[in-house]
Amino acid sequence: MSNLRFLSCFGRRSLRNAFLRAAAFLVLLPAMHYAAPHAKAQAQTPAPTQAQEILIPRFWDPKRRPEKPNLGRMTTIRFLAEDDYPPFHFRGPNGLPIGFNVDMARAICEELGVTCTIQVRRFDTLLAALESGAGDAVIASIAITPETRKKADFTDRYYRTPARFVARKDSPLREIAPARVAGRSIAVVAGSAHEAYIRTFFAETAIRSYPSAPEALAALKKGEVDLAFGDGISLAFWLNGSDSEGCCAFRGGAYTESRFFGEGVGIAVKTGNEVLLRALNHALARLWERGVFTDLYLRYFPVGFY
Fold first, then answer.
1. What is the Cα–Cα distance from 44 to 129, expressed in whole angstroms?
2. What is the pLDDT of residues 7-34, one digit of tens each?
């Protein structure tokens, strides 16, 4: 598992295929007008949709309002990204990059009143390109870790991937707690952070380890296990896609312990670029306040993963 990418053991290719099967229609939706008024979402307050109630996470303290710095001669922000990690960034029908991160970058530039460019590069070259001056910021779902902090400074996190439980829809299990599921069988991917978490906090369960997430989820579909535990984003697209055949649903809440599942994702800037860092933090907080973050989340994640 990469120590840079905030990606689960579900696998990059599997997540890409799940997204394209479950939400390919998103590329056909009209572009969003970020200047339009938006309803504010409350912290952890359900936002109703036709399919389900979706929790919209708040990562910004309402009592802390980052001020917009003097941008001086800054008229353009050159964002670096990649194009093979849907729904965060991928190529649209016209060959141009689109996705949650790409739209977030464009919304940030609109909020700051500057021009925005998106340069597509290979994921493993992004931080080196930032250091060399090829771009000003990287918005590519790079995990905030001690290792990545040595290579760049990061904004406040703007998303994280929680772990979630899923069960068959006919399961009587609703609320999840170690005592409630003692003796139940749980499918996890062998060697993953999710397996480590289950073995630490749900030791009284029957843990079934599988070589891959598709195999673990196939066991759940067949009723061979009671629950599966894994990456919330991957599971959300599986639930909303054809592979699940409508068999299953989330159970219980989100697990976000940073020891197992990381600190989250931020935008990387070159070490010491304090003005840009402050500007991006200001813009991110404003996008939350204006409801733009909520709109983007609902657009790209039709099944919420929190």
1. 36
2. 444 444 445 555 544 444 344 333 333 3
